[in-house]
Amino acid sequence: MTQNLIALIPAVVQLIILILILTKNKHAKLGIKIWSILLIVGPSLSILGKTIQILLGDDVLGKVGPPIIQILILFAGLTIYHYNTTTVEVKLVDGKELE
């Protein structure tokens, strides 16, 4: 039961970010940036752990699937972060900040 509740956390965070984007909230860019950083940090730590296991001689070469998925998630996080920082801008309109 608690695993189901833990699985809801990313969905709730994504829903909040989606609401910020759709309402053109000035904090949407920050929310996207924080979420993409989490997408970078999580897989990076997993890849680092697998690398340490390989260097210590543990046999993880048979488990190729999970590291490939982590690399894809890392790449997605880097892409979202780069796109967000280079193309999204917050403009001041009539005394209010809009995206």
Write up this protein.
There is one protein chain. The protein is mainly alpha-helical. It has one domain. Helix content is 73%, strand content 6%. It has helices spanning 2-22, 28-55, 65-87; strands at residues 91-93, 96-98. Helix 1 (2-22) packs across helix 2 (28-55) and helix 2 runs antiparallel to helix 3 (65-87).
Q: Kindly give the count of domains.
A: 1
Principal-axis shape equals elongated
Kindly report how far apart the N and C termini lie: 39 Å
From the alpha-carbon coordinates, what is the Rg to the nearest angstrom? 18 Å
Give the helix tally. Answer: 3
Strand percentage: 5-15%
Largest sheet: 2 strands, antiparallel
Spans of 5+ residues with little confidence (pLDDT < 50)? Answer: none
Sheet with most strands: strand arrangement: 1-2
Fraction in helix? over 70%
Q: Mean pLDDT score, rounded?
A: 81
What sequence of helices (H) and strands (E) makes up the elements?
HHHEE
Give descriptors for this structure.
99 residues, mainly alpha, 3 helices, 2 strands, elongated
Q: What's this entry about, in short?
A:
With 99 residues, the chain is mostly helical.
Q: What is the strand and helix layout of this fold?
A:
Blueprint: H1 2-22, H2 28-55, H3 65-87, E1 91-93, E2 96-98
Antiparallel strand pairs: 1-2
Helix pairs in contact: 1-2, 2-3
